[in-house]
Hints:
Layout: H1 2-47, H2 57-68, H3 74-89, H4 93-104, H5 111-131
Amino acid sequence: MVLVRLARDSEYQDQKRAVISSRVKVKKLSAWIVGVIGLVSLLSASCKKEQVAPTDPLQASIQKLHAELVSANPQVRSNMYDRVDYSYRYENYVEALMYLDAIANDPSLNEKQKKAANETIELLKVKAGAGGSAAPKPQ
Protein backbone atom coordinates (compact mmCIF):
# COMPACT_ATOMS: atom_id res chain seq x y z
CA MET A 1 0.00 0.00 0.00
CA VAL A 2 2.80 2.33 0.82
CA LEU A 3 4.50 1.47 -2.45
CA VAL A 4 1.30 2.14 -4.43
CA ARG A 5 0.89 5.42 -2.66
CA LEU A 6 4.50 6.40 -3.39
CA ALA A 7 4.02 5.44 -7.04
CA ARG A 8 0.83 7.49 -7.26
CA ASP A 9 2.49 10.44 -5.54
CA SER A 10 5.41 10.37 -7.93
CA GLU A 11 3.05 10.12 -10.93
CA TYR A 12 0.99 12.98 -9.52
CA GLN A 13 4.12 15.05 -8.91
CA ASP A 14 5.34 14.34 -12.45
CA GLN A 15 2.01 15.46 -13.90
CA LYS A 16 2.03 18.56 -11.72
CA ARG A 17 5.58 19.41 -12.85
CA ALA A 18 4.59 18.93 -16.48
CA VAL A 19 1.61 21.27 -16.09
CA ILE A 20 3.68 23.89 -14.31
CA SER A 21 6.44 23.55 -16.89
CA SER A 22 3.96 24.00 -19.75
CA ARG A 23 2.44 27.07 -18.03
CA VAL A 24 5.89 28.60 -17.61
CA LYS A 25 6.64 27.95 -21.28
CA VAL A 26 3.36 29.58 -22.31
CA LYS A 27 4.09 32.63 -20.14
CA LYS A 28 7.60 32.96 -21.55
CA LEU A 29 6.28 32.60 -25.09
CA SER A 30 3.58 35.19 -24.39
CA ALA A 31 6.17 37.61 -23.03
CA TRP A 32 8.29 37.15 -26.15
CA ILE A 33 5.32 37.68 -28.45
CA VAL A 34 4.25 40.85 -26.61
CA GLY A 35 7.86 42.10 -26.72
CA VAL A 36 8.18 41.46 -30.44
CA ILE A 37 4.84 43.13 -31.17
CA GLY A 38 5.85 46.13 -29.07
CA LEU A 39 9.20 46.40 -30.83
CA VAL A 40 7.61 46.12 -34.27
CA SER A 41 5.02 48.78 -33.45
CA LEU A 42 7.69 51.09 -32.06
CA LEU A 43 9.88 50.68 -35.13
CA SER A 44 6.98 51.11 -37.53
CA ALA A 45 5.84 54.26 -35.76
CA SER A 46 9.31 55.77 -35.96
CA CYS A 47 9.68 54.88 -39.64
CA LYS A 48 6.51 56.70 -40.65
CA LYS A 49 7.96 60.11 -39.86
CA GLU A 50 9.09 61.64 -43.10
CA GLN A 51 11.25 64.69 -43.44
CA VAL A 52 9.26 67.16 -45.46
CA ALA A 53 11.34 69.66 -47.35
CA PRO A 54 10.21 73.19 -46.56
CA THR A 55 8.36 74.87 -49.39
CA ASP A 56 9.40 78.33 -48.23
CA PRO A 57 12.79 79.16 -49.79
CA LEU A 58 13.69 81.28 -46.76
CA GLN A 59 13.03 78.38 -44.40
CA ALA A 60 15.17 76.13 -46.63
CA SER A 61 17.92 78.72 -46.60
CA ILE A 62 17.79 78.96 -42.80
CA GLN A 63 18.06 75.18 -42.52
CA LYS A 64 21.02 75.22 -44.89
CA LEU A 65 22.65 77.96 -42.81
CA HIS A 66 22.11 75.87 -39.67
CA ALA A 67 23.92 72.99 -41.34
CA GLU A 68 26.79 75.24 -42.42
CA LEU A 69 27.23 76.80 -38.97
CA VAL A 70 27.70 73.48 -37.16
CA SER A 71 31.46 74.05 -37.09
CA ALA A 72 31.29 77.80 -36.41
CA ASN A 73 32.38 79.38 -33.16
CA PRO A 74 29.95 79.34 -30.20
CA GLN A 75 29.11 83.05 -30.44
CA VAL A 76 27.99 82.69 -34.06
CA ARG A 77 25.91 79.61 -33.27
CA SER A 78 24.36 81.40 -30.29
CA ASN A 79 23.40 84.35 -32.50
CA MET A 80 21.87 81.97 -35.01
CA TYR A 81 19.94 79.73 -32.66
CA ASP A 82 18.99 82.19 -29.93
CA ARG A 83 18.57 85.41 -31.85
CA VAL A 84 17.90 84.81 -35.55
CA ASP A 85 15.61 81.82 -35.08
CA TYR A 86 13.67 83.54 -32.30
CA SER A 87 13.26 86.76 -34.28
CA TYR A 88 12.24 84.90 -37.43
CA ARG A 89 9.76 82.73 -35.55
CA TYR A 90 8.00 85.81 -34.18
CA GLU A 91 8.26 87.69 -37.49
CA ASN A 92 10.66 90.32 -36.20
CA TYR A 93 12.53 90.38 -39.48
CA VAL A 94 14.51 93.56 -38.83
CA GLU A 95 16.09 92.09 -35.72
CA ALA A 96 16.73 88.81 -37.52
CA LEU A 97 18.47 90.75 -40.31
CA MET A 98 20.59 92.59 -37.76
CA TYR A 99 21.86 89.34 -36.22
CA LEU A 100 22.28 87.66 -39.60
CA ASP A 101 24.41 90.60 -40.70
CA ALA A 102 26.58 90.16 -37.60
CA ILE A 103 26.93 86.47 -38.46
CA ALA A 104 27.81 87.17 -42.11
CA ASN A 105 30.49 89.69 -41.10
CA ASP A 106 32.13 87.42 -38.53
CA PRO A 107 35.79 86.93 -39.54
CA SER A 108 35.90 83.35 -38.23
CA LEU A 109 33.50 82.07 -40.91
CA ASN A 110 34.70 80.43 -44.11
CA GLU A 111 33.47 81.48 -47.56
CA LYS A 112 30.81 78.76 -47.77
CA GLN A 113 29.31 79.84 -44.44
CA LYS A 114 29.40 83.53 -45.43
CA LYS A 115 27.73 82.72 -48.76
CA ALA A 116 24.93 80.81 -46.99
CA ALA A 117 24.46 83.69 -44.54
CA ASN A 118 24.31 86.25 -47.36
CA GLU A 119 21.77 84.16 -49.30
CA THR A 120 19.61 83.98 -46.19
CA ILE A 121 19.94 87.75 -45.68
CA GLU A 122 18.76 88.42 -49.24
CA LEU A 123 15.73 86.15 -48.85
CA LEU A 124 14.90 87.67 -45.47
CA LYS A 125 15.10 91.18 -46.95
CA VAL A 126 12.48 90.17 -49.52
CA LYS A 127 10.29 88.69 -46.79
CA ALA A 128 10.73 91.75 -44.57
CA GLY A 129 9.83 94.05 -47.46
CA ALA A 130 6.75 92.02 -48.39
CA GLY A 131 5.40 91.18 -44.97
CA GLY A 132 6.65 94.05 -42.86
CA SER A 133 8.12 93.36 -39.48
CA ALA A 134 6.96 93.08 -35.93
CA ALA A 135 9.54 95.62 -34.74
CA PRO A 136 8.10 98.49 -32.75
CA LYS A 137 7.58 101.59 -34.86
CA PRO A 138 8.62 105.03 -33.58
CA GLN A 139 5.78 107.34 -32.68
